[in-house]
Design brief:
8 strands, 4-stranded mixed β-sheet, 2,3-Dihydroxybiphenyl 1,2-Dioxygenase, domain 1, globular, alpha/beta, 29% strand, 2 domains
């Protein structure tokens, strides 16, 4: 019998973990639960932050970890370009209001939208995330 495994968080690589964590904290209405500064021989902007859902909400936490050699992804994917290896899916009750809020927080609506009831957005580092009904 396999051991019990439980997904607790998703970590996003970024050249600016504090700024990106603040973006998602504002977007989602979450708070930073944990923060670590740069490690030995890391630049000042390095570090790691963790956002957790508010009390009473379920779901994994989201971490933001410094990535020294970060390359901004291209979406949709293109041959030879840095592609997004994952994205966050965020359920909403009003798609247009959610898009408007995401833009006010600093996101950009992707030029290509493959589905009518989903909006692909790009965070300040270019990671795609989806807002869906």
């Amino acid at each position: 019998m396999p051991p019990r495994l439980q997904l607790t968080s998703v970590t996003v690589g970024t050249p600016q973990p504090r700024e990106l964590a603040r973006f998602y904290a504002r977007l989602l209405g979450w708070q930073v639960a944990e923060e670590e500064g740069p490690g030995v021989d890391e630049p000042e902007q390095a570090g790691w932050l963790l956002l957790r859902p508010p009390a009473g909400e379920s779901g994994p936490s989201v971490g933001f970890e410094y990535e020294r050699s970060y390359a901004r992804p291209v979406w949709p994917s293109e041959p030879g370009a840095q592609n997004a290896s994952q994205h966050l899916d965020i359920k909403v009750d009003d798609l247009s209001a959610a898009v408007e809020w995401a833009v006010a927080c600093g996101a950009v609506e992707a030029a290509y939208q493959p589905q009518e009831d989903v909006r692909v957005m790009l965070d300040p580092d270019g990671h795609p995330f989806c807002l869906f009904l």
